[in-house]
């Protein structure tokens, strides 16, 4: 083992004549420079050190001091040439090579860093710091398995290595293996009780569950903050911890402490603004968001969060303007801000623009669940008749296929013959187990289930929201267990649910905010049910049942649901009287002298068609008033917009009453001012309808054939108000006018409606609990007997229906790949083999050309396939670790792409630079090219249909270079220009070389929107890669 050499200061012995006095002078100057460094005066140390280096240019000790000074001055790039010089002067000094590699790692020079760190380890194999840095390098470059193995090697030799434990913990955080991360941080802390590790452990605990780990988090952060009272990260995390645990005063004090720091980081200001918004201190939050946005105009977060803050105030137009201001600033990563813009456009009534916004986002993130859910929420909320929208039905099938595909190979198996003891374990998945309409509907039912059927049914909650308000605490007390799954990915959450032995899993969110629908694709429970929180099909084939009632849907509409409909005998919804009960009051028209129509529903439900109908009602009921109350009415612009709409029907502004959102108590009192509630359509009321009825206010609804258009209809029928439902617009208007002209009947109904409502199935929690218990036990019996709907069959039927075979040509499509796996392993376990097994029965054009147990270079295999293919063949060269996610028709997409370009890829670069080592990187340090030159996208992950989508730029686009993960062309095109793969580039650079050869020969290259998931992120560190890069740049000198 080579020992580190000592860095001699100036002269070797014996010194030259007269050198002693020079040496003494230089050493005094060196001591002065060291003193400046110790006193945190790096610029003075740099001046002294550079002066010394002129007098003693080979003095390693001076170079070392200068490197430290440059690092302290945050000028690491100036230290790089000095460390390179030191490595030449001391080529056998492991510490010098380690320092050089660490600096290169910091400066994002990965190849140089790897070489330097490997040299340090060659000189000193026990240099664990160098091995740690090498592991960090692998982790930064996405080579997580190699990183984990590298850190593990350190711990095998030195089980108490602090940095290895910390680095492994950071890797586990990255991989979302929270329990392992916490375990490694705890071990690191036991070795060295440092402030940084206390913070990192507290952060990991906070991300997992701040309430469960509350005491430990507070201990860690309080101790750290005492040692570092001006640490902005400690102040930030402890403040957020207190905010999450309902201690806003403590959070406020900490944020104020942070605002008094000498330099207030923008991230801390942003957290404080978020806290102010959460505390409904909206004006203060707004001012801070705008301040941050002015200082950081390219940062999308203040625009996004600021727009959401304005939305919470009800000022939708101002929120939309602020979001659009951010988009005009060309912010980085605009995706979330684009989603916010779409939501605001929806809420302001511009539904077509909102839809376009969501669809634009889906082009750059085609597997992003949030975009799909927002789109379905928009479309489902405006759907009165599902049979009239075939395109939407087809899109829904495509969504179901995508979700089933995503879970196909990790789907959890359940044994229906296994013994089952104890009560049925019912799981609830929702973001709304709190002060939310779902929470209000749910809590009475859970209490009744617990009291009447606790011996038969046991409820377990899986919350995807961290809220812990009074309703959440009440619901939690009624559950046998409570799990927060917000920090878990879908597969992790699914496995947790399975570990909890859930028999029947119920989704209560559908496509609303905070949904965790994708986890159902992994089949975490034998029986899966949709209920309560959504008003349409989920689109998931793995969702077995959807709970309805006798009124929810026409019998012939089951075909529009992926779920099997399970009608409860009386109602699908049940409420309990809230903590703020209301009292029915006399009909206000009797004292006002006029009828007051009212609607307190969200502004998003007030469609132009609804407003037109109300305009006609007001016109036909002279002297009547319309009372609207919702959050959006805080905006004067929105009020003016509504007034202008009614003016077209001759309705004066004096007949319109507009009120913004208020406290819940004031909201309930407002029903005493309404004679008749007008239900919007097709997105009818839910909780608002119940509030009207229990206040004695009848609701007039127009129903359609969709679930959402019949929600109020079902509630009115359960209360016995069949003469308050209308099947079409003329009857809706006529009913309103007739009731407005019959005050005696209206007054009589008001006197008795509250009592009728409270005695109806709508408020019979015990009856609802009985109905649910019977339904759950019947569902379980069906599953045990093998009679449950077959999700796999539904998936494959939809896939057959939606898959399109290219009609432009019947030419065979050769899928050409090489694999190190055996033939059996390839078809059973590889991403490409699993994909082809699914697609080949659907598409006779697909012809696999796979080289098994391969040891040859890819060009040799690809060229042989070119020679063997028929003259009309389409040739697809691809990796074996790629899932083919394009389940709506791969060959059809290829036909379309090859009509535009002669060589098609999924990602590429519109330009090519000298010495470019990869299609997306512009230099050997792997710095990515500017976004304006890149095109296409590809998913990354171990499972198919990944939502983690690498979007590089708009597609299709003509390119100079394409990603070699997927290259499609025709034999005719290659033969016409004599283009082949160069055998010199066996596994690396073959794609760049092929693209350059193709472009040099005159072939056109371009990207096309074909969806793939790549399991690996590329290997840019191997010796073979470096060797072949030299051959490549030798061949292409420009």
Number of strands: 26
Largest sheet: 7 strands, parallel
The helix tally amounts to 42
Share of residues in helices? 40-55%
Oligomeric nature of the chains:
single chain
Task: Say which CATH homologous superfamily of the largest domain is assigned.
Answer: Spore Coat Polysaccharide Biosynthesis Protein SpsA, Chain A
Protein architecture, described:
The protein is an alpha/beta fold and 1038 residues long. It has five domains: 1-107, Tetratricopeptide repeat domain (Serine Threonine Protein Phosphatase 5, Tetratricopeptide repeat, Alpha Horseshoe); 126-188, Tetratricopeptide repeat domain (Serine Threonine Protein Phosphatase 5, Tetratricopeptide repeat), CATH 1.25.40; 407-574 and 785-796, Rossmann fold (3-Layer(aba) Sandwich), CATH 3.40.50; 589-762, Rossmann fold; 803-1035, Spore Coat Polysaccharide Biosynthesis Protein SpsA, Chain A. It contains 42 helices and 26 strands. The strands form four sheets. It has a seven-stranded parallel β-sheet with strand order 3-2-1-4-5-6-7, covered by helices on one side. It is globular and about 110 Å long. Mean pLDDT is 91; it is low at 1-15.
